[in-house]
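Researcher: Next entry in the queue.
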Amino acid sequence: MTSMSTASSPVAVPSEEIASPAEEALATPQASPTTASVEAATPIQSEGESNTAAAETRPLPEEWRSWPVVPTLSPRMKSVYLAGMQAGNDPHAFSKVGDCQNIPEAFLGYYDTPGRYYLGKNYEYLQETIDYFSGSFGRQGAGVRLGFNFPAIFSPIQSDPDLCGPGEAPLECELRVHNPSFVFISLEFWYKGRTAAGYKEYLQRAVEYALEQGVVPILATKADNVEGDHALNLATAQVAYATEAPLWNFWRAAQQLHDKGIDWARDADGFHITVRGWEVRSFTALQTLDALWREVRGEPESPSSG
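Model: Structure for this entry, 306 residues:
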């Protein structure tokens, strides 16, 4: 399990080790020789399927290492967001669905506590997003729990009976109770018996459910490589590519940290990340939320990127 210090000292923006994080994160990678011409997806579709919509070029899933840290929204995802607004989703709310790496103490929680963080003069614009989504950062929702994995978020027996209805799984419960406009989906555990194919199937299912509710799913890569071949990051990129869900590429941000953000002193398997890694993870997630929110409002660039 992952633990993190809950000390009350302010958390700095990751400016010392991440060079110009906003500029690097918001940059769109140049097309490479392996970039494919694909069809813009309107309905849910599997990889390899296409429709007759106008073609667009996107980097392939195999190039996930070069995908930007902070993603952009496709026209389809903007339509999903607007449909969710029409259905009554809360524009001020976002949810988290994940394991111990996503509990408020480890992920984003301090942004709901003034004095626990400071943004620095280059990132003061992020305070608007913190204020707008206040209450979601430090919230312990129905979709996050120590030890959660993908099967668990679809299992009603794993739900909190005080929050969820009979037969309601944690993922369903969280989206119903909090009624968000965005949801971070990040279940990163590698355990015996898990395969990348199974992980991908569950992730696709979670994304499709979120889209059905008019909620924009935000997927995430991870800093560790305990599986040995980055199979889970590739699977995540494949789902993001097929569904057009935005992918927040934390792996890329972590590459600029000492030991690439991995806390080797804590354990030999390279799973846990450093305290600095936790700071960068929360900060780049905040940047992602800010960028996507600005896009749905018609403001594609952050104030610091001009």
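Model: Residues 1-9, 14-55 have pLDDT under 50 and may be disordered.
Researcher: Noted, moving on.
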